[in-house]
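Narrative progress, year one. The postdoctoral researcher (J.K.) led the effort to move from monomer predictions toward full complexes, under supervision of the PI. The following entry was the first complex the group processed end to end, covering 836 residues in total.
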Amino acid sequence: MAHFHIQDLTFSYPGGSRPVLDGIHLTIAPGEYVVLCGQSGSGKTTLLRHLKTVLTPHGRRSGTILFNGLPLEQTGQREQAAKIGYVMQNPDDQIVTGKVWHELSFGLESLGVDRNTMRLRVAEMASYFGIQDWFHRDVDTLSGGQKQLLNLAAIMAAQPEVLILDEPTSQLDPIAASDFLATVRKINRELGTTILMTEHRLEDIFHAADRVVVMEDGRILANDAPRAVCYQLYRQNSPMFPALPTPARAFYAAGGTGACPLTVREGRSWLTAALETVTRSQPEPEPVPEQGEPALRLKDLWFRYEKDSPDVLKGLSFTVPKGALFAIVGGNGAGKSTALKAACGICKPYRGKVEVFGQELKKYSAGRLFRENLAMLPQDPKSLFVKDSVGEELEEMDASREEISSVAEDCQLTSLLNAHPHDLSGGEQQRLALAKALLTKPRLLLLDEPTKGLDSFYKRKLAGILTGLTKSGVTVVMVSHDVEFCAEYADLVSMFFDGQIMTTNTPRRFFGQNSFYTTAANRMSRCVFQNAVTVEDVVSLYRENTR
Amino acid sequence: MRHDAFSKYHPLTNFLFFLGAIGFSMVIQHPAYLALSFAAGCCYCFALEGRKTGRLLLGLIPLFLLVAAVNPLFNTRGETVLTVVFGRNYTLEALVYGMVVAGMLVNMLVWFRCYSAVLTSDKFICLFGRILPSLSLLLVMVLRLIPNLGRKARQISGARRSIGKGLGAQSTRREKAADGIQILSALTGWALEGGIVAGDSMRSRGYGTARRTSFQLYRFTPGDMALIALMGALAAGVLACGGTQADFTPVISIHPVTWGLAFFGIFLFLPSALHLQEAIRWHISISRI
């Protein structure tokens, strides 16, 4: 018997003209690992929320949802709470209590489980998820990845049959994200828990999924095994195609037919098999750009947060030429964000010098520095929002009407001027924050993780805006975990490690040299090509060699 | 925190001890008892916090002197006039009484310091969560919300500064107020949004579907029972023996010391003794390794 059986589900929000879910038919069998994907706003979250009565949104609805053969409404609240686990996007907000042990036991306390069973279950969960070392900690001292793992463990403590996850890793860095996804995989494999998950990072989960469901405008576009879905999206030339794993994209773009590779390993065997006998022409790495005038220069910065804490910046030096898109990559907690803060004077280094457009940072008055010179976007765009509508947010920046409308146009916000900032999707929020910063007319823009939580569609939009800015002479410095994004769009890439910049180079030279910290396209193709870092590189080289 | 044997007992045991220690310190004015309580308090505080105790005591000296010296200015009763201040008698009895009051105050502060090191917020909640599960959950959530909002406020003001919307050194008071209101309104929105997610998360995990139970991190052991019985017996001994009265004005009259003082001392030194016992045991077991 199917776990969930959704028949002809149609739903629209009150006042909404167009249904958000439109005739959904979906069956989920016990033990399945199902990935639900689609662009932002395609109705994924709305669909997931329908699978638990307490989370179901209000609105007009038709169709039925059966859970274990019974209509979901007829399943008791307590049974639903125990059997259907639901992990949400934001790691922070879904934590209720202040201590790790208390959070783990919260669900069991609510279900009224007796004390001895609770002790055992909590102990089991803490051990299974490797939480025992931080069992007594305050939740606020945990990292984002640990918090999300705690949320997962707290839900698993109730021993659910189905686990629903709504973009659980969108706020996590890549390493924490792949740890989390590996744990989800382990739960599915070792405990047989049914998994239904929405996710942007298809690269990490496509190969593990039993089935992929693609949604578009509230309808199910595809519902099949991962490889078949890849082929279908390619055939339909769907806007979801660029979100697919790199090996699959490269395979179809290069004209491959049949079953596509999904992992780097499979991609490698495809390339080596196809290119065994051909001469391999190597692409030239891009020429090193001439060192123009520097927009930002950091010289031997040293910084630490407290007197007795370790140094975060240890002799950090780098120079950003004018008009470049300069990306800084590196591990988590290495101090990349601190480097940005030091560059705009929010952190005061105890040694070293920062020059902005040839003038020392200290010599700028705060008013002049952040007006027409420099602006920084924080990691969480929401921290810039204080008004009730997008229009008011933009007007707050003391700019003329023409400037506002032209920036709103550039950042594609014109249709959203009346919306509440907190109601926007992640990508739209990022663009609103960017628009606010742009209204100060900066010549140097610092961005902290601008692609965090964005799907591939919004990432391309953002990239378009950023390259437009650099063309018009604005210098952009961004800190990012997103190697694919940096490889594709940056002019220069730097590796940040141990409080300093280890190396700076053009993307192709930079990622071409790395063997771990590089793009999937490069890892997949390094056995046959050198310096191919993007899917386009791989595809054009493949074509050249198979002609 | 350092390892401390008494802190490892059940929160109820901890709580009852401090109820006794702080309760006695609040009512007994007998100098011998005060001195003993001070000694025991400092001893245990040192066991818990080590050198930091020195800093605490250093801060308490001026407080003690101030309260002691100020009391005779308001209280002029007493027979032995030392001097005349502002036309009022400054008497020896009032000065002594001031010292006693200051001593009680100092003792309470020292014991409260120990209390906060031993009975952390989660122990407190464990203690009252049993009686009032929903209220204690509310308390937990509020305790988490307050520092969170502070952190968010700093995040918002830092982020706004970096787009030239923050306060500078030359901002006027009006600008500061306007900025504060902006941040406050942003925080409200943020808190409401977070509240909705937290509410969803709670209901999704079955909040309100059954009678709440509470997870107990701490176990009530026979050792706890024995310690509580011992504390009860000692406290009863103090009360039964009496002899804790002391009057200071107009004439100093202090009741001679009884066996009660010994019981009182044993009671207050219990945590320190347990601490010492554990430390010794550990040293012995280490030396065996």
